[in-house]
Amino acid sequence: MVVKAKTLVAARHDPGPAPASYDQDVVAWSVEQARLLRAGLFHLADVEHIADEIEDVGKSEGRELASRMAVLLAHRLKWEFQPTHRSDSRENTIREQQKKVLRRLTRTPSLRPELEKSDWIEDVWGDALTAAASETGMDIASFPDVCPWPLAKVILDNWTLEEKASTLQAKFHGSPESCRTAEQRRPT
After folding, report:
1. How many CB atoms are located within 10 Å of the residue 132 CB?
2. Are 40 and 12 within 8 A, CB to CB?
3. For residue 23, what are the CA distances in angstroms to 26, 44, 78?
């Protein structure tokens, strides 16, 4: 324990090698800044750039949420507007994006208010429209100008499963008899 205390005291008085430049090598700079902060050498730290980097972490989290939401909405649009192209793969992508959006909101609860900001929703919806139009080959004007679904519903609902159940029920008219094969329905 005494050795560790001496090492810490020595680190506080030894600024170490010449500081790495933020503009020349951000990775070396970040390692250096972490070392200075852990050693309590705050007066040697590049406070302005450290503050910028901390702000960027928050912005990065926000961009990640917006990106995941745009992918989710684009796949929801494709599901809705290309019913003949529905597949397990598309449904799996929707489920995966729902999980990732929920994970992001759980790990970073301060992002939740973004889901209610009209400018954020417009930006995400614009990205979703662009992606859906590009991926389907459909004209962007084929899609709604504004998101027709509450975002919470898109994130939380199992609408594809509900839709599959309704389709099956409609197809078989809800009758157990209609689920049997033609051979099974023949009178004996």
Report:
1. 24
2. yes
3. 6, 17, 43
> Integer distance in angstroms from the first to the last C-alpha of the chain?
90
Backbone phi, psi, residue 186, to 5°: -65, 135
The count of other CB atoms within 10 Å of the CB of residue 125 is 22
CA distance 35 to 11: 9
Cα distance between residue 118 and residue 141, in whole Å: 21
Q: Cα(8)–Cα(14) distance, rounded to whole angstroms?
A: 10
Residue at 13: amino acid letter = H
- Domain ranges for the chain, please list them: 10-45, 58-157, 159-188
- Structure tokens, 169: 């029920």
Structure tokens at 159: 């609408």
d(CA 75, CA 62): 20
Tens of pLDDT, residues 2-29 = 555 555 555 555 555 666 788 889 999 9
Q: Which residues of 62-89 are buried (b: 16+ CB within 10 A; e: fewer)?
A: beebbbbbbbbbbbbbbbbeeeeebeee
Q: For the segment 134-166, what is each residue's pLDDT rounded down to a tens digit?
A: 999 999 999 999 999 999 889 988 765 555 545
